[in-house]
Each structure stands twice: as structure tokens, then as C-alpha cells.
Amino acid sequence: DDDDDIPQLSSYTLAALQEFYLEQQEREGMKTSQGFNQYSIGSIEEDWQLSQFWYSDETASCLANEALVAAGKGGRIACVSAPSVYQKLKEQDGKDFSVCILEYDRRFSVYGEEFIFYDYNHPLNLPENLLPHSFDIVIADPPYLSEECLQKTAETIKYLTKGKILLCTGAIMEEQAAKHLGVKICKFIPKHSRNLANEFRCYVNYASGLD
């Protein structure tokens, strides 16, 4: 029989798979029925293959508020590979500021014109309407703990910012962060919704509320 060569799922695996899909459908149904907020953290799930780890709700709120204060009234904020902060900023209805999100993950294109596709390997491959030094603050969270990734992301940050930088990355990157961006470590310790193996820290180049 030709069907003999086709791999068959065991009844246990099939049942587990069906349960997974059912749970997924229920989650999607709950999102719709509860008037789902597309800006809430976790509305787009982490993709670990893209080195995505979302901040805890408290950390995202703290960093968003810091960015708002640093940007000032009518300020412009750029979130580079920091979608959790972008989402928290978007929850601030009626606040006088503008924000955009630079991200490699095209799922974030659901945010419309505020989404800008970004690949740190091409740090200055940016839209023409993204003018140099046009943001009051840039908050960035490079996806990888490597000097190459930080150095390339730093090019983007320096192109975008008028001066203020808020960098989130591993504690082991302190020396490289100072070298490439002139930022210093803060007392504030950011947390993630899932615990990371590497200690994480924030760095700034201005007098911030994170100390």
C-alpha cells in the first residue's frame, strides 16, 4: 500500500495537537470578546528565535514614563527594538507626544504608519521621512548581547536622537555601551515577563529618573 510510507501521528500526539489548537482558538476568541487591546504587552507573543523577551508590565510602564518626561511636552520618541515600551506609550491616551517603533518583526506592522521596518545589520537603511536628529529621545534594546549588534544599533540611535539616549541591554555590555554611546549605567533594574539568564540593565546619557 502506498500509504505505508506516510508517517502517522500517534493518537496521543494528535490529541495533544488538537488540544493546543483548541486553546489557541479560545485565546483568540477571548481577545475578540473582551475588546482586546492591541497595545497591551503580550498582544503579540514573544518569538524567541528573534531573541524577543518582553518587559514586565511594571518595567515597561517605568521606561515609558521616563521617556515621556525626557521627551517633554510635544516630544518625539523612537523605540528601537523595544516594542513593550512602545505599547505602554500607546496606552497613554491624550498625552502630547508622538512615537514610532523600529522593528525587524513585521507582525508589528499592525501599528500602521508608526511601524518602521528595521534591521540592525543595515543601521542607516531608514525611510527618507525619518530625518536625522529628529527625536527628543531614543530608547533602544538591541536584540543580541554582542558588540557588533550594539555598535550597529548605536549608529541608528545617533542618527535619530537630538541627544538623549536610553539604552537597555545586558550588564556585561557596560563597557561597550560607554564606548559606543557615551551612556552610564542606572540604578534601576529592568525586569522581563520571563526571567532571563543574563543580568539586564539600563543606561542613559542624561540626568534621568532611573537613579
UniProtKB/TrEMBL annotation:
Gene Ontology BP terms: methylation
InterPro entries noted in UniProt: DNA_methylase_N6_adenine_CS (IPR002052), Efm5/EEF1AKMT1 (IPR019369), Mlase_EEF1AKMT1/ZCCHC4 (IPR041370), SAM-dependent_MTases_sf (IPR029063)
Organism: Fregetta grallaria
Matches recorded under HAMAP family: Methyltr_EFM5
SUPFAM superfamilies hit by this protein: S-adenosyl-L-methionine-dependent methyltransferases
One of the record's GO cellular component terms: cytoplasm
UniProt GO MF annotations: nucleic acid binding; protein-lysine N-methyltransferase activity
UniProtKB keywords: Cytoplasm, Methyltransferase, Transferase
Name of the protein described by the UniProt record: EFMT1 methyltransferase
Cellular compartments annotated: Cytoplasm
Catalytic activity: L-lysyl-[protein] + 3 S-adenosyl-L-methionine = N(6),N(6),N(6)-trimethyl-L-lysyl-[protein] + 3 S-adenosyl-L-homocysteine + 3 H(+)
Name of the coding gene: Eef1akmt1
Coarse class of the protein's main subcellular location: cytoplasm
Xref: Pfam families: N6-adenineMlase
